[in-house]
Amino acid sequence: MLSVTRPVGPPHLIFQITELCRHILRCLSTPDLYRFGASCKLIQMTVQEFISDAFNVNHRLKRFFGDPESFRKMQAETGTLVSGSFVLQLLIREYWLSSDLNLFIWPKQFEAVRDWVRLAGYSQKDSTFEEDSDAGDGSESEENINDETGADHDNGTGVDDDYDESTFDSDSTASLSSTYTLSNLVTVLFFEKKVKGKETLRIQIMVPEATPIQTILRLHSSMFTILSYYFIPVLIYSNI
Description:
alpha+beta
């Protein structure tokens, strides 16, 4: 959207109109924001200012990381995508206290992303694997894990600190619960960080067999939300 020069007029009148617009903007859906901004130059300028604050990705990321720019740099270097409730909250301008952060990574970048998350103060949750006696190909099967995260997933698999990156070879897979069967995920790692006097922050690292974008498109059926280091596309089948 092109920048607009603030129109000249009585300062008190411009202020009153701007404040009124801000109250209206909080009630509008994301598509309606842009429609409303096309009504006149003053409102367009007010919408631009509102959008720059309402859709500030770094402000949202600051809840999980003290240095959001460092996280965005890691995204750029590893091709990591963020999807799920975090991006949805950004798009609909809401805050959900129990929400987590889902990172979809390239398999070869597993160690780099995992180490970065640990350096950010997160600890990996313990997970248990059990051998699947019925599996003829020697693949591992996960026992049901009681999900304590309150996030938007049901069950998942994790790996311990000694997990070998060679696990991601095409000849070796870790089977997931039925929740992720169609997503072509190799494994899911769970991380937590307790914030003193506040809450427990949670991050999931999703490791796919193929590419992050393919996994996201297969994981969701009605809405797709994707945050890379430089863009936020959203594909919806119904209005949000």
